[in-house]
Specification:
Layout lengths: L4 E5 L3 H13 L3 E6 L8 E2 L2 E5 L4 H4 L5 E4 L8 H13 L6 E2 L4 E2 L4 E2 L4 E2 L4 E2 L4 E2 L4 E2 L4 E2 L4 E2 L4 E2 L4 E2 L4 E2 L4 E2 L4 E2 L4 E2 L4 E2 L4 E2 L8 E2 L3
Parallel strand pairs: 1-2, 1-5, 2-4, 6-9, 7-10, 8-11, 9-12, 10-13, 11-14, 12-15, 13-16, 14-17, 15-18, 16-19, 17-20, 18-21, 19-22, 21-23
Antiparallel strand pairs: 3-4
């Protein structure tokens, strides 16, 4: 029985990471990518960029499944816009999880989210829709990561903490247990967050 096809929305560096996870997981067959006009006809790790997002409705004939494969540093506007667009067109948005990650059977992962290599999502954690849980990130028990967040490489979020909608937590940062990060926050690389942050905060250190 053939694997269902999967269309990737985005053709940059994050798309390469997504491709690797999808290939290792082995549940989907990548049919191609959607990119910018200058990327159409090029290839990303041997997969063709089939068109721009102007032809998404036509591409629905090739695949029922699509995944946002655009990265996020700082603002998540593009990822959230693309997520809404492909959902409204009628694509199904699967969860993609590396077989080298650990996701507890008692955790919840929202649609369109990606859990990268060596990430850990422990019991009671809830990850929203369209999130990136990047390589070596640790999401401890009972953590809530709301929709459209990027938890970058080697981040530690300790038990019971909450990360609000559309927030970015930079590589190597640590979030103390039980605190709340508001919506649309940006936390820089290697930051230790010990207190609640209101929505729209930028905590980037040096």
């Amino acid at each position: 029985m053939s694997k269902p096809g999967l269309l990737l929305i985005g053709a940059g560096g994050h798309a390469k990471s997504c491709i690797d996870v999808i290939e290792q997981e082995g549940k989907f067959r990548i049919i191609g990518l959607v990119g910018s006009p200058n990327e159409v006809g090029t290839h990303v790790l041997d997969y063709e960029v089939l068109g721009t997002d102007d032809v998404l409705t036509e591409l629905l004939n090739l695949s029922q499944f699509a995944l946002v494969a655009v990265g996020q540093i700082g603002t998540n506007d593009l990822r959230s816009t693309l997520f809404s667009k492909i959902a409204n067109i009628g694509f199904k948005l699967p969860v993609v999880m590396s077989p080298m990650a650990y996701v507890s059977p008692h955790a919840v992962i929202g649609k369109g989210s990606v859990v990268m290599h060596r990430a850990t999502v422990n019991a009671g954690a809830k990850i929203g829709d369209n999130c990136i849980i990047n390589s070596h990130a640790l999401i401890e028990h009972d953590v809530i990561v709301e929709d459209h967040c990027h938890i970058a490489t080697s981040v530690t979020i300790n038990g019971g903490a909450t990360v609000g909608h559309s927030s970015f937590v930079g590589s190597g940062s640590t979030i103390r247990e039980l605190i709340t990060i508001g919506d649309s926050c940006t936390i820089g690389m290697g930051i230790s967050v010990r207190h609640d942050l209101p929505s729209n905060s930028k905590f980037v250190g040096e």
